[in-house]
Design goal:
CATH superfamily of the largest domain: Aminoglycoside phosphotransferase (APH), C-terminal lobe
CATH architecture of the largest domain: Alpha-Beta Complex
Largest sheet: 5 strands, antiparallel
Number of strands: 10
Strand order of the largest sheet: 1-2-3-5-4
Helix content: 25-40%
CATH class of the largest domain: Alpha Beta
Distance between the termini: 33 Å
Shape: globular
Radius of gyration: 19 Å
Number of helices: 9
Number of domains: 2
Strand content: 5-15%
Structural class: alpha+beta
Order of helices and strands: HEEEHEEEHHHEEEEHHHH
CATH topology of the largest domain: Aminoglycoside 3'-phosphotransferase, Chain: A, domain 2
Length: 294
């Protein structure tokens, strides 16, 4: 997640949120509206008084998540070991804003980081427990992986051309031959079981902690049912060494799923290589893990 405290990003500001609230939810019109300190790219989020948030997609491609989360979050929540966003109401386009939007219950907690999580191995077990609980939820009728999930949960082959283009651009800057081997190893596998629920973006910015322990998982915008390999990417973006080993053992996924997880991590790091300081580190971790798991 990124610090976007400057109001007005994507044409959305607190004044617009106040107008939408007054028009569609007058019972909350007197509540103060303030931007959250740390926001994501897909949505703008505002505190609505002490107990609620207003969450507005920044583009049409993110708007489908509003309907999906409003329908499915209440059904998933009882089966999960920590809190997830609670859908309170769904807003409609208005006041010049073109998309549906959401009102959620505020969840206390700090964003996961190496400063807020002193016990990485314990945290790794908690994330694995959450992933397994999510996979155990009834997937009948759930949203199949596709455009709404940005193809998380689908075969990584969807991003094949983009990956090859990135490898061509980065030739000489990373070991592109080994990276290509990682990618091809993933494409040689598939999820051959019934689809299961996946979150789609198990990343530190979407994990809240209290007293150093996992307390909530937020932002189910890329969730759906399909292949859960994308939910293992945190093994390379946040865990390493002993904590990665704990996570690998606790999450109980097969070697093919791990091959596709490495591909998902590799793809994202490749396409963000020039804009993300961590991309080179993630690529190195993925390549080393691939060699170790041969």
């Amino acid at each position: 997640m990124t610090d976007f405290r400057q109001d007005g990003r994507a044409g959305i500001d607190a004044a617009l949120v106040r107008r939408l609230i007054a028009e569609q939810f007058p019972q909350w019109a007197d509540l103060p509206v303030t931007p959250v300190k740390v926001d994501g790219w897909d949505n703008r989020t505002y505190r609505l008084g002490p107990e609620l948030t207003a969450r507005l997609p920044t583009a049409e491609s993110y708007a489908a998540a509003v309907h999906k989360e409003h329908e499915w979050l209440p059904l998933l929540a009882p089966a999960l070991p920590v809190a997830i966003p609670e859908a309170v109401a769904k807003g409609s386009p208005g006041q010049g804003y073109p998309y549906h939007w959401a009102i959620r219950r505020w969840i206390d907690g700090e964003t996961a980081s190496y400063e807020t999580v002193p016990d990485l191995s314990g945290f790794a077990r908690s994330i694995a427990e959450f992933i397994l609980a999510l996979q155990s939820c009834d997937a009948t009728g759930g949203p199949e992986a596709g455009a709404h999930s940005f193809y998380r949960g689908a075969p990584p082959e969807y991003y094949h051309d983009e990956t090859l283009e990135a490898l061509a651009v980065l030739k000489g800057r990373i070991d592109t031959d080994l990276a290509r081997e990682v990618w091809e190893a993933a494409l040689a596998t598939s999820w051959d079981r019934p689809p299961v629920w996946f979150h789609g973006d198990i990343a530190s910015g979407n994990l809240l902690v209290q007293d150093g322990r996992l307390s909530a998982v937020i932002d189910f915008g890329t969730s759906g049912v399909g292949d859960p390999a994308c939910d293992l990417v945190i093994a390379y973006t946040f865990f390493s060494g002993p904590s990665r080993s704990v996570f690998r053992d606790a999450v109980q996924q097969d070697s093919g799923t791990w091959a596709r997880a490495r591909a998902w991590a590799l793809w994202k790091a490749l396409i963000t290589y020039n804009s993300s300081e961590t991309s080179h580190h993630v690529i190195t971790e993925v390549l080393e893990d691939h060699q170790a798991q041969r």
